[in-house]
Structure formats: structure tokens, C-alpha cells
Design brief:
Elements (H helix, E strand, L loop, with lengths): L1 E3 L2 E6 L2 H30 L8 H9 L4 H23 L3 E4 L3 E6 L2 E6 L5 E5 L2 E5 L5 E6 L4 H10 L15 E2 L11 H13 L3 H13 L2 E6 L2 E6 L22
Helix pairs in contact: 1-2, 1-3, 5-6
């Protein structure tokens, strides 16, 4: 813990060790993979099912030591690219008595404690809920649950060891009653996005559902949902689908 402007704060991140693994480990792994590829090209060219066969044959025809040096260099560059992506995706959480800052790459978000009822880690996501049970924040992270809990509790935030609403979730199936108007269509679209691994679309549809008062929890490619206190569920006699016939049926 340190101080900044006489305001105590606690920073939770992967720290120097994580950076050392990213910038040291991945380039070394890439170099090793490059060396193995150079050493195995002769054997790989005899396997008809190996992908990129033309590239491997070209590598096998290159003179040594240029071939080995080239594949090692490419492996190192690939490792550096992975390290750069990993560094950009690191989540840094700065907890203060009045607010929490979540920083990832060029994204910087601050949430006030007065707006937050509970904080917890679930399914490798840091989640902040407001007083109505709606999600203020849902950020994927590999940060230690122990360190996060200690940081939030040290500054008086409400930390829970698990999702306090976990028992309220229901498995979504098409046309399930009880959802707000329009939610079923959004869930159908999100199901397709999840199946096609379109993460940006799935994330945006989650936000749209949140505006309707629907909170999601994923298990594999299955969607589970619950309603916040602000949600207005559909009455039993209403259609649960956002799409109706032109004549109102």
C-alpha cells in the first residue's frame, strides 16, 4: 500500500514477475519453437497431412545455419508479439476508500464506492454490482482472489467470496417466459455470437441486455440469466419474443 495525494490506495496487478514472464518467457518459447521447427523440417516434409507443407519444404531447402537462425528469429518475434498483447491486456486494479480504478491497455475506468453494493470474483471475472443487483463492472482477470479480497476489504468495500445472486440464475431457452420485452431476441443473437466466437458482439449484446435489467452468466456456450430490481418482466399473457407479427399476433 502507498499514498498519493494523502489518499491511501492499494494496487493489485501481476507485478514485475508477470512482466518478466511475458517479456522473457514467451520470446524464449518462441525461439525454442523456431529451433525445433528448423530441426524437424526434413521429417515434416515426409508427412503428407502436415499443414503449410510448401512453407516447410522451402525451409528444408534453405542452407544452414541461415535456416535455423531465421526460424529462431521468427519465433522470437512471435513471442514478443504475444508478450505485447499480454501486457496490453493486463488488468491493474487500484482500490481507494472512495473509488476503484480499473486500467487495461488504453481503457481506464473509475467506479465510485457509493454506487457499489458488493464486489466479487466469479468465473475469472471481477464483478461490481450496484444496489439493484445490476453489473457496474465485469472484467476478465487472472488476478489472485486473495489479493483482490484483501485490497477491497482493507478499504471498507463490500467483498463477497462468490456471486450472492448465483442461485437466482435460470438457464435460458428460446421463448422462456418472464423476460423483459426484447430480451429474448437479444439472447438469441448473443447465442449465435457465442457459438461463432464473436466476442465483441457477445460483449455488446450483454451490455444491451443489462440496459433491460437482465444479467448473464455463461457456462460454456450456455446462457444463464437473472433480473435486476429495475427490470420489468413480461406479464404471462404477453409474448416473450421481441418479434411479433405485423397484425400484432
Amino acid at each position: 500500500m502507498d499514498t498519493a495525494g494523502y489518499r491511501p490506495r492499494t494496487v493489485v496487478s501481476g507485478g514485475p514477475l508477470e512482466l518478466a514472464v511475458l517479456w522473457g518467457g514467451f520470446p524464449l518459447l518462441g525461439a525454442g519453437a523456431g529451433w525445433l521447427l528448423a530441426a524437424a523440417t526434413g521429417w515434416l516434409t515426409r508427412l503428407p497431412w502436415v499443414p503449410f507443407g510448401d512453407l516447410i519444404e522451402w525451409l528444408d531447402r534453405l542452407p544452414e545455419p541461415q535456416a535455423t537462425a531465421g526460424t529462431i528469429a521468427v519465433g522470437v518475434v512471435a513471442g514478443l508479439v504475444v508478450a505485447g498483447i499480454g501486457t496490453a491486456e493486463r488488468l491493474i486494479v487500484t482500490v481507494e476508500p472512495a473509488q476503484v480504478q480499473l486500467r487495461r491497455s488504453d481503457q481506464d475506468r473509475t467506479v465510485a464506492r457509493v454506487d457499489t453494493r458488493v464486489v466479487f470474483l466469479a468465473d475469472k471475472h471481477l464483478v461490481l454490482l450496484d444496489g439493484d443487483g445490476a453489473e457496474l463492472v465485469r472484467e476478465p482477470t487472472d488476478l489472485s482472489a486473495r489479493r483482490l479480497a484483501a485490497a477491497f476489504r482493507a478499504h471498507g468495500w463490500g467483498w463477497a467470496d462468490d456471486d450472492p445472486h448465483r442461485s437466482a440464475y435460470r438457464l435460458w431457452v428460446p421463448d422462456l417466459p418472464g423476460l423483459p420485452a426484447g430480451a429474448d431476441a437479444l439472447l438469441r443473437a448473443r447465442e449465435r455470437a457465442v457459438e461463432r466466437d464473436r466476442r465483441d458482439d457477445a460483449r455488446e449484446l450483454r451490455r444491451e441486455l443489462g440496459l433491460l435489467g437482465v444479467v448473464l452468466r455463461d457456462e460454456g456456450k450456455r446462457q444463464y440469466w437473472r433480473l435486476t430490481a429495475r427490470a420489468v418482466p413480461v406479464r404471462p399473457e404477453q409474448s416473450t419474443s421481441a418479434e411479433r407479427e405485423p397484425d400484432g399476433r
